[in-house]
Design brief:
2 copies of one chain form a homodimer.
Chain A (H helix, E strand, L loop, with lengths): L10 E5 L3 H13 L4 E5 L3 H9 L5 E2 L3 H6 L3 E4 L6 H8 L8 E4 L5 H11 L20 E2 L1 E3 L20 E4 L7 H13 L3 E4 L2 H25 L10 H7 L6 H10 L1 H23 L3 H17 L15
Parallel strand pairs in A: 1-2, 1-4, 2-3, 4-5, 5-6, 8-9
Antiparallel strand pairs in A: 7-8
Helix pairs in contact in A: 4-5, 7-10, 10-11
Chain lengths: 313, 313
């Protein structure tokens, strides 16, 4: 038994219908109107809003109901809630379903999937006690699209247009599952690439998680009486500090080993700058700033990311 | 002898015709076409470009030539070159001239003006040895407008439209000089406010200089192999790291006491976040992120700064 091809998909379930899940729902409804989209989440207000917006075609009153007939399930809850969500749904999934998450950290997700679904692969597992949903049908995904504003109210059908989606399949992942995941994200306009989960967490620890940590620290440390005078330098530097606390609590916690290692590189670079300042060594100070400025100027907005939509993490 | 009123100003000299000086020249030429604008700077290419753009009406071949007949002199060189520039021009200034700088740090500028011009006030000064240009005609100014791109090529006639300009007069500054400085910046579209130089340096140390220092440190510390995957979170957080090295060497050096004190507040806030991460204290982590996020969300773009032009420092 394998997953369906995209053209055969009839029903998608969105678990957690916020910015990420709601935008996926809006986009897949637009691209494939023949697909019904249901959603389940803790907030009835959110689900009703998603229905009103036309993002979903019906609301499920329980997690089992949501996934039971779904050909595709997208888990778009805060990273810290993924384990419990996956555990709760596994016995109710169709064996042919594709399940994806949309979290910003991936090594933990590979491990979670192994823990929750892997036992189905063990020869000793009792068929009665476990679902037949196979680990090979789980594809970890990370859409590099978002905003600092969370929630269904900010969902947009073109959130993923020209955005990057990273898939981090493991050796256990089946090729048809990767193909369907790729086709789905491409159907909503994204460009899909694959990398292993550890590489993903190193890269996004560096370009996303660490900047968030530093922006949070800056906002907490700055004299509040001064910020009314902030210009666009301040505005841009601190924009990501306004991100959702629960989402970022989970991302930073989940990728903490990587982040704590990388913050040391930052601290060493800061120490060099402070030392040059303290010693009045303007030659060294200029050298360090020139290095930073050249590195930044050499950076180019990735082509599919260069339009006006905001992209975070 | 006092400075002129704006309607009587016939000649303005721009010393250092980059983004800041060139934009002022373009704007004043547009607002007051009867005023001739000359410029002096180290780069003939820059001066010829300013002439070609219509920012200035003529090029001066020396600093004395530039300031000799000027009713208003704007010094727009990197902060570290201001002392020498002011020293070199003082003997050649008209006693009725207004002189302004446009630097991003101000306590040092008040001290520099006192050092270079203050001796004219001392009873023992020899009239032959010194110019008669009085300290009271020097007005330190900081236009809160700029971009991360420096140079005359990026100058715009509306760079100061609806921007804030901070004047930091000292007790030695004459009221008519403050009035003319205010009228000039208002003529190019800016909104002018006054604060004392130490307050200025504290405020802009917090909302501008410290973010630049942190962005430089981040760019120097980050694994270069990862940044190709940066999205708009990365893009916005690091934009100011691309700023001009000489300009920022001087700003950070000049305001280093304030900046080194403020970086401690950042480091304490970062240590709290790291501690919560290390200990796996997700409650404390969420509390700290919530505090940062709330502080950022409560911030509002200052009304005159809310249009689309980029504003730095």
């Amino acid at each position: 038994m394998t997953v369906l091809a995209l053209h055969a998909v009839r029903r998608v379930a969105i678990i957690g219908c916020g910015l990420i899940g709601g935008s996926f729902a809006l986009a897949i409804r637009k691209a494939r109107p023949e697909i019904t989209v249901t959603a389940y989440g803790r907030s009835q207000t959110t689900l009703q809003e998603a229905l009103r917006m036309g993002a979903i075609t019906d609301v499920s009153s329980s997690l089992p109901d949501a996934v039971r007939d779904a050909d595709v399930v997208l888990i778009s809850v805060p990273v810290g809630a993924t384990h419990e969500t996956l555990s709760s749904m596994r016995a109710h999934l169709k064996p042919t379903a594709l399940v994806m998450d949309a979290g910003s950290t991936k090594a933990d997700m590979v491990a979670t999937a192994q823990t929750v679904l892997g036992e189905n692969m063990a020869s000793g597992a009792s068929p009665e006690a476990t679902s037949h949903f196979p680990l090979s049908h789980f594809v970890p995904a990370h859409p590099i699209a978002g905003k600092e504003k969370a929630g269904i109210a900010h969902a947009e059908g073109d959130l993923y247009a020209n955005r990057l989606v990273i898939l981090t399949p493991s050796s256990a992942t089946a090729a048809p599952a990767i193909s369907l995941a790729t086709a789905l994200w491409e159907a909503v306009g994204a460009r899909v690439i694959q990398m292993d989960a550890d590489t993903h967490d190193h890269v996004f620890g560096a370009v996303s998680h660490l900047p968030h940590l530093l922006a949070f620290a800056y906002m907490n440390g700055v004299d509040p009486s001064t910020i009314a005078m902030g210009g666009t330098g301040f505005q841009d530097f601190t924009r990501i500090a306004g991100s959702d606390p629960v989402v970022w609590r989970d991302i930073l916690s989940t990728n903490r080993t990587e982040i704590l290692a990388q913050v040391q590189g930052f601290e060493q670079a800061l120490a060099q700058l402070k030392s040059a300042l303290t010693e009045g060594d303007t030659v060294q100070l200029q050298t360090l700033i020139t290095q930073a400025s050249a590195q930044r100027k050499a950076w180019r907005v990735p082509a599919p990311l260069s339009d006006s939509n905001a992209i975070d993490d």
